[in-house]
Specification:
The chain is an alpha+beta fold. It is built from 12 helices and 36 strands. The strands form 8 sheets. The protein has an 8-stranded mixed β-sheet, sandwiched between helices.
């Protein structure tokens, strides 16, 4: 890992933002975009002397710990993101790093995942041990890495929830990860699936779902009783989301609907106090997590994707730091990821119009800011297209936001081959940050639009709820309207427009060539849904979250069949690409197998690629490369030849 002075390297980069775009932008190797990030998830030890991070080594992800004093690297654990997944890591104290890993197990033809927690002791070299040593009287739970609290006043123990006695009724345990020993704090309760503690590590709330309703139960230390705090129908306007407690254990933060959008509230739990509105954004939902000070333990702000630097602070010290970063790195976004316990050293994630993402290490006493790594080493100001925020009108007059990626090589007034790239979810959204799909396609000469069609999250309750039981309806039309907008703006060649996406985006791509073949010349789907009736019936039969599926899709089989692409295979007259992983636990591979079979039986043009042991997120680098290669080849064949 190379350390170099920031101001000798980065400021020269920022100057290039105003330079004219190159007439000819070199075509980068596909792996520059399709590989997993070169560096990711940096995390400082409490004393600020060690830095844990993930390093991509030719597709193998290695958890590294860099000693900032000795300038030495220690590899801790490796993951291929195929059989073994490194889900998270967090410092227990200055020398012990906790690691949550997930691996795939087999029981005959059935594959399933289990999670385990390990402790890396770095006090003398690297010693890796199991963080939980089960007693003979306890049954081995499938999930063993769910930490509730890091117990700030205890640097060798954590609070965890574990199904040691009854499946789906986790109890709470105090665990010493350095020895693997544990002690029960609270028995599991029926219907409670998640426990929430205050900042002192005391269990204060339980969350659960039953019969289409969600609820929070509040524990009162004064009465030693559990009381109702909130109960609401799933997806209703009465929904809340608890974000956490303040340093004062009687102060609770949560988001709830305010004037049509999620806003942040604070409520004192003593007496009969009403919630106090802390922050509301008139244009966007407030959905991020609380930000705590590592030195004081106080809530200093909260993450908000639409705020400058992605955080709204009310703490004067953090505001001072953000102002200093803005002065040193103007015209950019600088998100403080982590600080040492004394507040001196800190990590920053820096992005700008010319920089897709780098990590910086700051030292407030020395007044330094050093470069420590890039997420994607090969992508820089010479080839980074970035995104432009746009808005267009749907056919019913509703305004839709989206992000447009324009190839750097585009000539004035040139009409380009175009890809509409809807996101998954659909209760999700695209952002202005770096996206390897759109950047790759732009580097290959495609205009790319990522619409936040109705049903996307972040734009208010009514906007998001418009997706409920409306797959294939108005939110599908929003995608054709996006393509028409680009044609009207003189950006897109109307004869060269295709659509592609993953998960819900894959479904939308397939439905686009069913419903709007006059606009879209081809459709590419990764892990897309093709049979809504089958999806809903399987989820309701086999999964505990069946109420969510009933609310989202309804139970009208005839209606679901009418908006399922698999049932319209005979009328599809556009080329189709299907890619799916065999171990996809979110959208089963049968969805693409059935679609491919239906298209082949109808003698349609279809290419089907199956990723052996692939998951829903293209977590394994070889699968990501293979998928993007297939998408680019497919689009080139149908739009450039």
């Amino acid at each position: 890992m190379k350390f170099m002075p920031l101001f000798a390297t980065l400021l020269s980069t920022l100057v290039l933002v105003s330079h004219a775009k190159a007439e000819k932008v070199p075509e980068l190797p596909l792996e520059a975009y399709a590989s997993l990030p070169d560096m990711s998830r940096p995390d400082l030890s409490p004393d600020g002397k060690r830095l844990a991070f993930i390093k991509n080594m030719e597709g193998t992800l290695v958890l590294m710990v860099f000693d900032l004093e000795k300038r030495t690297n220690n590899p801790i654990i490796r993951s291929d993101n195929k059989e073994v997944f490194l889900d998270w890591f967090s410092w227990l104290n200055d020398t012990n790093l906790l690691i949550g890993a997930r691996d795939v197990r087999r029981d005959g033809a059935i594959r399933y995942t289990v999670t385990r927690m390990q402790n890396a002791d770095l006090s003398d070299g690297v010693k890796l041990t199991s963080a939980l040593k089960l007693k003979e009287s306890d049954k081995p739970p499938q999930f063993q890495d769910n930490i509730i609290s890091m117990l700030p006043d205890d640097d060798i123990r954590v609070l965890m929830q574990l199904d040691l006695k009854q499946t789906n009724a986790p109890g709470v345990y105090r665990v010493n990860p350095t020895t693997g020993r544990y002690q029960r704090v609270l028995r599991g309760k029926s219907q409670i699936s998640h426990w929430i503690s205050d900042r002192q590590g005391n269990i204060r709330m339980g969350y659960g779902q039953e019969d289409g309703k969600a609820f929070y139960r509040l524990y009162s230390p004064d009465t030693n009783e559990w009381q109702p705090f909130a109960e609401y129908e799933l997806f209703s306007a009465d929904s809340i989301s608890v974000k956490g407690f303040g340093k004062d254990p009687d102060i609770l933060y949560f988001t709830a609907i305010h004037e049509g959008r999620d806003a942040l509230f604070r409520q004192s739990l003593k007496g009969n106090n009403k919630p106090e509105l802390i922050y509301a954004d008139p244009k966007f939902d407030v959905q991020g997590s609380l930000v705590y000070s590592d030195s004081t333990g106080e809530v200093v702000g909260f993450a908000h994707s639409n705020a400058q630097d992605a955080v709204v602070y009310w703490d004067e010290d953090m505001l001072k730091l953000q102002r200093s970063l803005a002065a040193a790195l103007p015209d950019s976004n600088n998100y403080v990821l982590d600080t040492s316990q004394d507040g001196n050293r800190y990590l920053v994630y820096h992005t700008s119009a010319s920089e897709p993402g780098i990590y910086l290490l700051g030292d407030r006493k020395q007044g330094t800011l050093d470069y420590i790594g890039s997420r994607y080493d090969a992508i820089n100001e010479s080839n980074y297209a970035g995104k432009q925020a746009i808005r267009y009108k749907a056919r019913d007059g509703l305004e839709i936001a989206g992000y447009l990626t324009v190839p750097l090589s585009r000539q004035d007034k040139e009409k380009l081959p175009t890809i509409i790239l809807p996101h998954g979810g659909p209760h999700a959204r695209d952002f202005a940050n770096f996206d390897y799909w759109s950047e790759l396609l732009a580097n290959r000469g495609y205009l790319v639009l990522q619409p936040n069609f109705r049903g996307s999250s972040g734009y208010g309750y009514e906007f998001e709820m418009s997706a409920m039981q409306d797959w294939g309806g108005a939110m599908q039309d929003d995608l054709q309207d996006a393509a028409n907008y680009l044609v009207q703006q003189g950006l897109a060649d109307p004869e060269r427009i295709c659509i592609g996406g993953g998960s819900y985006g894959g479904y939308a791509a397939l439905m686009a060539v069913v419903k709007h073949p006059e606009t879209f010349k081809c459709a590419a789907s990764f892990a897309g849904v093709s049979d809504l009736e089958k999806l809903v019936s399987r989820r309701i039969r086999h999964f505990t979250n069946k109420d969510l599926y009933r609310a989202q899709f309804g139970e009208d089989d005839e209606k679901l069949a009418a908006v399922s692409p698999v049932n319209a295979a005979k009328q599809i007259n556009r080329p189709v690409l299907l890619v799916h992983g065999t171990d996809d636990a979110s959208v089963f591979v049968s969805q693409s197998r059935d679609m491919a079979s239906a298209l082949e039986s109808a003698d349609k043009e279809v290419t089907y690629i199956e990723l052996e042991d692939g998951d829903h997120h293209l977590s394994h680098q070889a699968h990501r490369v293979e998928t993007l290669e297939a998408f680019v080849e497919f689009f080139d064949k149908n739009l450039k030849q």
